[in-house]
Design goal:
- Helices cover 6% and strands 38% of the residues.
- The chain folds into two domains: 14-238, Sulfite Oxidase, Chain A, domain 2 (Alpha-Beta Complex), CATH 3.90.420; 245-355, Immunoglobulin-like, CATH 2.60.40.650.
- By secondary structure, the protein is mostly beta strands.
- Bound molecules: the ligand Nc1nc2c(c(=O)[nH]1)N[C@H]1C(S)=C(S)[C@@H](COP(=O)(O)O)O[C@H]1N2 and molybdenum atom (MO).
- Molybdenum atom is lined by residues 43, 89-91, 198-199.
- Its cofactor is Mo-molybdopterin.
- It comes from Ectobacillus funiculus.
- This is Sulfite oxidase.
Length: 356
């Protein structure tokens, strides 16, 4: 559709909640692989923090050989790394679970992608040294508040196992798409943890602490755990790597189209590995064809755009299904893995279309 016929019509974020601010990316109306920060989803547990930038320092302490306090200037001088990665909220698509689960009712816009530049956390940890026996790295943000389920005030803090913290692509970022990180996305410094759901990528970093026992903060021990049972916490395990997944951008769910040729297009992504195939069915799963995957040779951590030319001659109602598979042979399952807090939804993507 030519935008010239619709002057001024442009996508906007979709509000889920304003206090704290939680908004979705208008993923169906995004073109391109690097999302403008104005269209980047926003996911916050608390009010935005107040920080004084003139006096901002990044302390690294705990089980280190020599604790240090870095200025942003110090960090800018170190060798940088630039990474284009999918950031997806673990609650993305939560609204699709049956039975429904409590929490932000994300549809499919709890996902964005862009280019982050920063310094590997590893580089900083090499400068402080790590003591023998250290097991995890805790990254704490400046934002804090009360949770509905606990009495104390908590900051937003998460830990990473040492191995993930030391991965050269786990970075302390200071730029997004060549600009300083926008305030709402973590200015001046945020963690970017490729391959893991977004909760790991802590914004507004206040300090980094190396620890030698499992970190038990509530955003790690209560939230961001998969609870497979409705009534108890048995068999819970932590939310980490992004599941293989896809979204149909066009046409829209429940759209009415005419007979003829239509381009079905969307994105597919995964945490570990890359997307190896995208299959599509326009007859409710009876037959499947391969969608055409664009730029399949691209670097890791990105989403893949795909498209499929659909020629439809018969009027009626159609269910279109998309199933992505990754290089570790993980495919979107027929039914989702239901869990009480509604994380990691990745069942086969479905929309309905009417042809008249
Ligand atoms: N300090 C801090 N970091 C945070 C959060 C937060 O509430 N506070 N939310 C996390 C979650 S759950 C997600 S999905 C991403 C969202 O990042 P964005 O708001 O830049 O999209 O940030 C993560 N980092
Ligand atoms: Mo999230």
């Amino acid at each position: 559709m030519s935008s010239a016929r619709y002057p001024g019509a442009k996508p906007s974020l979709i509000v889920r909640k304003l206090h704290p601010e939680n908004q979705e990316t208008p993923i169906h109306f995004i073109t391109g692989d690097e999302i403008d920060h104005k269209m980047f989803y926003r996911r916050n547990h608390f009010s935005y923090p107040t920080l004084t930038y003139s006096n901002y320092w990044l302390p690294i302490n705990g089980s280190v050989v020599s604790p240090r306090i870095f200025s942003v200037q110090d960090i800018l001088k170190l060798p940088s790394r630039t990474i284009t990665a999918v950031l997806e909220c673990a609650g993305n698509k939560r609204s699709l679970f049956e039975p429904k689960v409590f929490g932000e009712q994300w549809e499919n816009g709890g996902i964005s992608q862009g280019r982050w530049k920063g310094v590997p956390l590893r580089t900083l940890l090499e400068l402080t040294g790590i003591q023998a026996g250290a097991t995890e790295v805790v990254v704490e943000g400046y934002d804090y508040g009360k949770r509905t389920d606990l009495d104390n005030i908590y900051t937003y803090a998460r830990s990473l196992p040492l191995e993930k913290a030391l991965h050269p692509d786990t970075i302390i970022a200071y730029a997004y798409n060549d600009q300083p990180i926008p305030f709402k996305h973590g200015y001046p410094l945020r963690l970017i943890v490729p391959q893991w759901y977004g909760m790991a990528s802590v914004k507004w970093i206040k300090q980094v602490s190396i620890v030698d026992s499992p970190f038990k903060g509530p955003f790690q021990s209560i939230d961001y755990m998969y609870y497979p049972n409705k009534e108890n916490d048995n068999n819970s395990f932590p939310v980490t790597t992004i599941n293989v997944n896809s979204t149909i951008q066009r046409p829209l769910n429940m759209e009415v189209l005419d007979t003829g040729k239509h381009i079905i297009k969307g994105i597919a992504w995964t945490g570990k590995g890359f997307i190896s195939k995208v299959e599509i069915s326009t007859d409710f799963g009876k037959t499947w064809s391969y969608a055409n995957i664009m730029n399949q040779d691209q670097e890791r951590y990105r989403w893949f755009s795909w498209s499929y030319e659909w020629v439809v001659l018969e009027k009626g109602d159609y269910t279109i299904m998309v199933k992505a598979t990754d290089s570790h042979n993980q495919s979107q399952p027929t039914s989702p893995f239901w869990n009480r807090k509604g994380y990691g939804y990745n069942a086969i993507t479905k929309i309905k279309i009417r042809i008249e």
